[in-house]
Amino acid sequence: MLDIDTVRRDFPILSRQVNGKPLVYLDSGASAQKPRIVLDTIQRAYAEEYSNVHRGLHTLSTISTEKYESTRGTIARFLGAASEDNIVMNTGTTEGINLVAYGWAMPRMQAGDEIVLSVMEHHANIVPWHFLRERQGVKLVWVEPDPDGSLLGDKVLEAVTDRTRLIAITHMSNVLGTVVDVAAISRAAREREVPVLVDGSQAAVHLPVNVEEIGCDFYAITGHKLYGPSGSGGIYIRPERMAEMRPFMGGGDMIREVHRDRVEYNDAPMRFEAGTPGIVQQIGLGAALDYMMGLGMEAIAAHERDLTAYATERLSGLNWLNVQGNAPGKGGIFSFTIEGQAHAHDISTVLDKKGIAVRAGQHCAGPLMDHLGLSATCRASFALYNNRADVDALVDGLELCHDLFS
């Protein structure tokens, strides 16, 4: 298990107060706080080592290039990829999924071809596929979760037909905390020669991930949820899928030669990384992933399972609180409403006065909100630095909200 007191000291922001109260940060599902090692790495990269990468032979460029490129290997180790050449670095999951949509799906999908999605998907794993629906006549096939928020692999596979060209599925719902068995889906889909894209934005933060064991074709992560900087991330792409892809954006780094009448593209993965990248962001992400792996993903998962169980117990004691989703094995994400007239934004505002940070709204999950019949929820999302005292503070804050709005 984690030494949670030591871990909390690694995150400077947790020592501050908000509205005169100790900060209780329960919005990591949107963006996680950063440990000191990441902050120090970013500061050093800008203050002592900064230069553009890949283009220079001078000392600073060499240092920046080596540190930037080392993150590719770090991401590969973090995801259990066989080679760092399977990793395309980018600004995060949204860019990664758009790369697949434009670079892989668009050239090979025709009108009537199908993409299977769950209703639980984040907009980042919906809107790029709507582009294909609007522009090429691709059909989106939706799979709904069970009443408890569970989404069984068999249910996803039942939606597959001979026109299915891709399954695009979340590994963990950012609203319900539901964990999807993407390995079972990937194994069965491979037998049917249907590629699988996994949105790992939430799951990779909380669970050990091994893309080789999962067997998916694409696995996207985003750095700012992984205790790293915003504007950082990467996507694992199976080699045979990468060989099928055309470049998404054109510019520097992704080319080998440019002439008036032709261009010669760089080898993968570089051919999918155009322009000056987020150098320091990616270096910071490497530090964040090293920090997580140093703690141990199994230890992080065990700590969060204990915290999730405790939060489930405490919140279930509030009979006026409606928590959405209680699937077995769910992650530490709790979306809820309070019976009566309290809007999610009002609840969030009251909690903020107590120093408690939660998210209110649709959480970039419009189809799921429609499915649940809700306009908005509050969401408390836990991370490796949270403890039981944070759960208790949330419960106390919700009881105050109930008293105010009842």
Describe what you observe in this structure.
- The structure is a single chain.
- The protein has 406 residues and is α/β, with parallel strands linked by helices.
- The protein has 2 domains: 4-30 and 296-405, Aspartate Aminotransferase, domain 1, CATH 3.90.1150.10; 40-294, Aspartate Aminotransferase, domain 2.
- Helices cover 41% and strands 17% of the residues.
- The chain has 15 helices and 17 strands.
- The chain has helices at 4-9, 36-47, 59-79, 93-108, 127-136, 153-158, 182-191, 203-206, 211-214, 239-244, 279-295, 297-316, 344-353, 366-372, 388-405; strands spanning 17-18, 21-22, 24-25, 87-90, 114-118, 139-143, 164-170, 196-199, 218-222, 233-237, 255-258, 263-265, 321-324, 333-338, 356-357, 359-361, 377-381.
- The strands form 5 sheets. It has a 7-stranded mixed sheet with strand order 4-10-9-8-7-5-6, sandwiched between helices. It has a 4-stranded antiparallel sheet with strand order 13-14-17-16, covered by helices on one side. Strands 1-2 form a two-stranded antiparallel ribbon.
- The longest helix is centred in the first third of the chain and has 21 residues, at 59-79.
- It is globular.
- The two termini are 40 Å apart.
- The mean pLDDT is 97.
